[in-house]
Model the fold of this input.
Amino acid sequence: MKNFFTFVLLFFSTLIFAQKTDYNTKKGFVAEGYDLVSYFSNKEPLEGKKKFQTTYDGAKFKFVSEENLNAFKENPTKYVPQYGGYCAYAIAEKNKKMYIDPEVYEIRDGKLYLFYNSWIGSKLSDWQEGDVKKRQDKGDKNWETLKHKK
Done:
C-alpha cells in the first residue's frame, strides 16, 4: 500500500512540474519573433533575426543582436511578456487567450504587456481605461488557470 501511495505522489508531482507555460508562439516565436529586449531599450519594438535566437521554458525567442540575446539569457524573467505573450486585455476581461499585434504593447511596473489590435480598435486603449491595477490583478488570477491550457 505504501508503494502505491508513493507511485501516485510521484506520478502527480511529475504531471504538475512537467507542465510548461503555454506561450503565444504564432509564427514560431514568442511575440511573433520580435526582440523582447528591444521593447525595454528602444522607442519601438524590433523584429529579431534568425541568427540570434534561443529557447527558454520550451519556447523560442529571437533578438536583433548578440547583446540583446545575452541580456535575455542573463535575466529572461525580466523580458518575457506577461500572460505568455497573449493579449493582456483578453486574459483579464474575457478569461481567454487571444493573439496579439506585437507592435501594440505597454511596459507597466517593469513588465511587458502585449495587445490585440484590429481596424475596430486597440485593446491597449481598453486596457488603459479605468482601474488598470484591478485589471492586472484580474489578469494575474485568470492566467493561473489559463497558462497550462492549450
Observations:
- Helices lie at 2-18, 36-41, 66-74, 76-79, 88-94, 123-128, 132-146.
- The beta strands are 49-56, 59-63, 101-108, 111-115.
- The longest strand covers residues 49-56.
- Residues 27 and 133 are 31 Å apart (CA to CA).
